Amino acid sequence: xxxxxxxxGIAWDHSRALPPLVATAQRYEETHRGVRIHWxxxxxxxxxxxxxxxxxxxFDLIVIDHPWAGFCFExxxxxxxxxxxxAPLLVELKQNSIGPTFESYVWQNKILALPIDAATxxxxxxxxxxxxxxxxxxxxxxxxxxxxRRKLAVIPGxxxxxxxxxxxxxxxxxxxxxxxxxxxxxREIMQRAAELLRELTEPMPRAIFELNPILVAERMxxxxxxxxxxxxxxxxxxARPNFAAKRLRLGNLISLKPGGPRLRSVLGGTGIAISAxxxxxxxxxxxxxxxxxxxVQKGIYVHAGGQPSHRxxxxxxxxDELCGGFFSGTLATQSExxxxxxxxxxxxxxxxxxxxxxxYLRDGRNLSAVLDKLDAFYxxxxxRGGKDFQGN
Length: 392
What we know:
By secondary structure, the chain is α/β, with parallel strands linked by helices. The chain folds into two domains: 183 residues, D-Maltodextrin-Binding Protein, domain 2, CATH 3.40.190.10; 196 residues, 3-Layer(aba) Sandwich (D-Maltodextrin-Binding Protein, domain 2). It contains 17 helices and eleven strands. The protein has a five-stranded mixed β-sheet with strand order 2-1-3-11-6. It has a four-stranded mixed β-sheet with strand order 8-9-7-10. Strands 4-5 form a two-stranded antiparallel ribbon. It is globular and about 65 Å long.
């Protein structure tokens, strides 16, 4: 009897991430008796920022987000799936992925990963606490600030999240973030975006600057500290019955002013990439396609706690009921999300830029100096990769 094919994968540490992959692996093994798949996990921060070159040496399957595209292809760390996946399957995934999730992995005609998970910052709230306060979920920036001044609002102010909130506002104010090679955006727009964040966060406790989206959701569902979260990467789990002590509702983003367009937040979510060191590419690719397929996404994946990227799950009424109205509630915001830069040196900018913003928002440092630092970090990030890997 021949030895089974062994595949190893790395995901991140949350009920939205690991259990659905373990469940899909279990089912895949049951129908492919010669394959064994073992998933491991890392923290959310490690997921976003630990260099992929370390992981590519150890794992066959890497759950990844789209900003790593330039770095991965410059270093030849992953397979270009455009060369491996049959064209009809790529067309099906492109047509049926929610919002820009599929396109986010397409970079310079190469494909980094197959989309399996969709997320973008959106509001969440505790209906019971808002009702107790005689308040409704805000629809505009001014209403959000008013709720913040009542000590009812929160955002994740962790460094990377803060930078992405800033990017969202730069886009809303009319600039294309990181389109210029010297500056993130025109200085007056950067200044206004930072000032808006200051207006919203100033009444909030300084503890928010240590909170990522998971910690915000855990805090909101285990304490009565906050009634409404303005924007954080979504986790449908907290809207499901019996997942958390106190359930959240999730909905679409607010507008900067009455009658204006919704904010467009910065796309998150994940895909499955295949390491260039993978010794069993055919099996790894077949399993990745299995996880990304319609029936698995709206079936095993979502029922095991996942947050699928396939539109069939977002359109499924049973999935929506299972997840407390998450899919219908956030559909517009997920569909309108914007894609981050993917040039080779980008990813560390999220941490560096977020730390600079914290100096202004948390520590009261001079805004002009902070914006100078932001642009300096940006220029430094543009110099980290080769010239052929600098496209957004």
